[in-house]
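During the no-cost extension, the postdoctoral fellow (Dr. R.K.) reprocessed legacy sequence entries with the updated structure-token encoder. One reprocessed record is reproduced below for audit purposes.
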Amino acid sequence: MGSQIDDINSKAPELELLPDASSGTLVLTHPTDKEKRRTWTRNHREWGGPLSLEKYLEREPYLTTIPLARDGGITHWILSTTTSPEPDQKQQQRPVLASCETIRKRVLVARPGSGAEGGGGGAVVKEATGYGIGSVYTYQEFRGRSYAARMLRELGETLRTWPKSGAPASGADMDGKRGEDVVCSALWSDIGKVFYAKKGWVPFPSVHASFPPLPPTSTSTSGGRAQVPLEPITYANLASFTSLDESLLRRRLARTAARTRRPAFAFAPDHDALRWHLFRESCIASLVHGGSADPSAWAAETAAKGVAAGPESRRVWAVWARNYVKAPPDRGDDSDEAEAARGKNALYILRLVVEGYDEDAPLEGQDGAREGEKEEMAAAFRAVVDAARAEAAAWGLGRVDLWNPTPLVRGLLARCGAEGLPHEWVEREGESIPSLMWYGAGEVVGEVDWVASEKYCWC
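Re-encoded structure tokens follow.
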């Protein structure tokens, strides 16, 4: 593959000639298509999971064309010695000292205001822009020289006003839209809480509830439970759920800001944000199971991407996605190696919604909720999670993870009990740590509430 990736007539610079990470000659710029491919080839071992290099190189370009990423939503960045991708007089290719990607996302922000400014006890909800940062990578030969730290320092400041007006730099894959009201950038650290915190991305709570797959002999009616009807969530009706979700989330943000008297924000769980995850997981699943990244085979599928349960206006619903870290073993393989592989693969609940109640209040503190309604809510919640567990079992996945459950959801878990809904609590210390840099004028990140910090935010 090397001849397809590297310029034939250029060579890498000698390490001793590279500038120090503090040098003023280093620049944050954008890679060419060849540099992207070279970087993907290098970071395949880190993030390729069960995909071969060939399939990984099929996946990565495709992921730039899906909702949220397409139309300039994704931008690739590198730290280098020049903005020009052309080889120098010595025919040396410019070095890719560090690299990453950003995805532009809609953000909802509520700030306390006077009662005349809006509802929610005076809190005002506005739309803004935020960026998700991912795939932070340094070529092995350049590690230990603080190049990633320099890139991140430059990036953190650049994103405050990105994209700037005027033509984008060479290699930028964005559409020239100006980044009005950029309020934050976020990343999900896989190297603990310290490194990125020192760069300005402050860690936020990283707890999840983990559920085992539903055993083959189990059903949602076991133990004398009444069966709860389920409504599948598919590509066909997903937009109606995300539209309702955003409306409910706006009210929740307003309540939070009014109660705390400080800013509250959330990444919008809109149609594109959810479809980014769903298209991504379908692409990977297709490649894992012998298909291709071509969406014609699966983008119109009618398979459920989640379920809803409960009466209208009081439903509980979830949208989920598969995540493959290891190649899925054969169904009949019960070896230790197969079980270990299954344990690495998971079904992530991207977003969980409980309609009609205050998700930030405990179950027993829900105003006006009668005991029968609480039981109904718990039954709907259990049915939704059991459906996710059944989906995990059907795909040979080792667990179902739900990030940062709300106080209400914690109460529902407690009411279901360990027998009714087996689970364990996990405090993540080393991976997928949500970390935030806040740009709001006159505001500091330690005084901002991140609402709905669930898996759908991740990128």
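Confidence is low (pLDDT under 50) at residues 1-10, 165-179, 220-224. The radius of gyration is 23 Å. The remaining legacy entries will be reprocessed before the final report is submitted.
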